Fold this protein.
Amino acid sequence: MAPKPPTYTAPILPSGRLCEVVLEHMSDSVIVLDQDWRIIDLNPTAVAEIGAVKGKTLWATIPELEGTPFATLYRRSMTQGITGSYEGYFAPFNNWYAVKAVPVTEGLMIFFRVINLQKQTELALKKSEARLSTIFQTLNQGIIVVDGSGTIVEANPAAARVLRMPPDAIHGPLSRAAGWQFYDSGGNAVAGTELSSFLDLQRGRPVRGKVLGFRRRKDRPLRWLSVDISPLAEHEAEQAGLVCALVADITERRRAEQALLRSKLFLSTAQQVAATGSAAIDFRTDKWDWSDETYRIYGVDPQHFIPSAEALASLVHPADRDELMSKPALARRGIVPPPIEYRILRPDGQERILRRVAALIREPDGTVSGIVGTVQDVTDLRRAQIEQDSLRAQLSHMQRLDALGTLAGGIAHDLNNTLVPVLSLSETVARSLPEDDPRRSMLELVIKAGERGRDLVERILAFARRSEPNKSPVDMSELIRAALELIRASISPSIEIFERLYPVPRIMGDAAQLHQVLINLLTNAAQAIGDKAGLIDVSLSEVPGTGLGTSSTNLPSHVLITVSDSGCGMDAAVQARLFEPFFTTKRSGAGTGLGLSIAQSIVRAHDGQIRFTSRAGAGTRFEVYLPVPGGSGS
């Protein structure tokens, strides 16, 4: 038998039906023991939980209680008459229990509840707190907690390293007075409370990925942080303004990014200066990558144009498209594509010439993973080369003409010296013979041939000397009419001459030389028509002096003489040699090839220009521009 407890005043249990109702509906297990530890009452929950039975002692019902903290609690409450509580694990039932022992008049009332879920939650919470503490202490990213006054109230070791402070000195105000200086992402010094990050927090918005600079003292180097901040206080009862900030030192990364930006800027500027872009293709992903200058060269907007084989083909001139688009296939087979020049048609309608030089991208194992190349706009370079080639050809041509003129002048002098005695002696002998002497007619033939030779020599000398014209005021209308009157008598009557002579100012020129130019142009026009019916159109007018590209373009106006014919015209090969001395398309004996070269020399000596347009089978038009000194009315 258990010892009798001492006498004490205990609560009185509810009686009757009320006690039954209370016990029946309680979710906790309840048993009532007398002073001999027999169960004198219990509720249905106790029956279900521990199999308790009225009249049976507690120790007989649950013999495993002996020696447990639960038994110690029950005996202390029974003997000392005090209420006690305990929570613990009871291994035989594999449950956690929260028990309460309450002394009553009959003996002892025990309440107990299974708290497995509560204990599991508590254990999980403790494990979570332990893990969070470990993470907080070992995380490589800094964590700081700041209150509403801008004071660090908690920080992990990583935060001390990021902020370059001893762990025991990191707590304190983030104020300028405490030595802190903050900078926005642009490098401008601002107060901590003025940073956009803190302004966002004041509006209840979390901050993500903000960049700010800081230093503790002015003599310390500027450091850069990436900051994520979230409010911690979710209820009004919690501390207002408490925030948690994750900070990471991105100083080196920012320096690398700034260096990369500068490098990209330098590269972009260099490519723009050199008019050379870069382009690459990754064969593994089929991704195309163009530099900014490449987009500019092709005349497309990088915001709307996506580089690809199809997109590039749409810009390439159709005649060059197949050759250019075949090069990536060579690269995929490990063959370096040769340099290539091709034409493109920009969206704005411009045609440009590009030069591409490519190289292969190889992986460490030697496989080709892509192609990279430079794209250069060589349009202006090629035009300059064409112009340079043209100037070289002109220089060579002028050098040949100069040499030819020198040679022709020497030959003409020798011929002239030879012809003088021939003509003199022939004329003397002819005069000494009777008119009916048959030898006289033969000498006259010799004299005519000599005179033709003398005329040819004079032309050659005139070409070789390039002597300055004897200038005086010339009425070009009268000069043209005189030339037309002379030419009409020597050309085929089937050729019609149409003249349009408008009033023009007098020019300063050599009338004889200009007459020779007109006769030459009219004769050539008539010979181009031949015996067929045709038309020669002659006009005279005054035109502005600008846009002619001569040394006299500063003069107000020019006299324009045009001679057009409906003859056979000239092909490109003939046009290229038209003013070349001794070049002629006429049959042997029909011309010397000096007419147009002499005409050109005369016009140039008058500071003018001679131009022509012609097409095979469609006639020829010559234009002669002669400057008017002092403008109209001179």
